[in-house]
Amino acid sequence: METHLKTFPSRLVARPWLLAFVPINAATSGFGVALPLLILITLHGAWVDVALAASLFNGAVILASMLWGYLSDRYPTRRRFLLINYIGFAVIYVLLAQAPSLPALYVLYVVVGLIAPAGASASNLLILEKFREDERPNAFASFQEMSMIGAIAGLLIGYFWLLGGRPLEPLLYVLAALAAVSVAAVWVGIRDVPPDRVRTTANVAVHADSLASRIYHSAALRIAIPFFPKRPGLSRPSRARFRRWLREEFRHELPLIFAASFLFNVSSNLFNISYVPYLYAAGLTASSIFLVNFSNNLAQGLAFPSSGNLTSRLGSDRLVQRSTYVRSLGYLAVAGFTFVPLATGGVYGANVLAFAILGAAIAFYSTSSSLILFRALRGRDAGSLLGVSSALGGVAAVLGAVLSGVLSFLGYRYTFLIAAGALLASLPLWSAAQVAYLRRKEAPAAVRPTPTPPPAGRIETD
What we know:
Growth Hormone, Chain: A, 15 helices, mainly alpha
């Protein structure tokens, strides 16, 4: 029987302090568009410079995710980590507005990547600790709603700011002010829980709603920040045990899920990092680029509340395949725009529609793929396996960014076609994972293998 996810809360705000997450998501959604435009317009950089900045950012996110996960377990003070995260964003945005050169911007981009995971780990643990078991599904759904509302608001602020021809740099001061609002809201409205209610990062992995919320592709940054309940081992014996586990799990769906997710994340990062430079090269103004991105987040926000019910009706396997297919068609459509000579207005309208479809598809994909992963983790060392999954996701993020820079010499047309091809290549893997699950489900319990999970690091979790 499929696990059901609560994706539409009975109350929009489960607790008033969840409103603290709206301004910070508005700030980060504006960052996701403003920074590439700052490189392209203000600093006169190129597509390859945007790809390099994204590579540095994604690499920093991977390393910082392991560190912040460890610190979250060692020092269970969620409020302090949120304050560090949001104060850091406010300060960095002010510095970015004054960045004198591309090298300085690269350094600040790395710093953003280092602090971004701090809030991601703390916010999910905070919800686990603040809400009772029966309240958590609604709480995590409400948390996602706050994130999406903030992301939509941030892009609208960027659009109206630039619509009147205002310069781009002062917009970063506005984003810094939004982050500061979240600092004030956390300072006033959030307190840490008593020691007997403290949870660890491993607890996130055993709740379907918290797991789905944690690995959901950010509506603001359009990436899934890696999640390490346990750090995967990197030593030679650890790698040997992991290879042995892969051989033992050959008939299980987990390796297939990992491979399909890896291809999806590579293609998504390749496309998303290349997309803003493409829109700019196609002649769209900065305000129009914000509005194209707004269509993506709006469609994602509208689709997400129905994704839980749709998953229950169609089944998570069917929905993940269909949403992946629709997303690949969106990539092909954008690639097709480069074959047809369109006026600037035509480019704008076509991309608003195409990127909106991609936003809806990611909402359905994220919910269904989260349920498939949760189903496959039952009865296994979820912390270790999620560490492996997160490591692969982080590698995919860096690889997608690097490929965006490497493929820049081919042009946007072939880059988008390659992204679509990688996404289509994941479809047979999702189908094979469904078949493997059905075979495992039907196999007699006595003959089911009991594989040894891959190794974790030395981080202690309960």
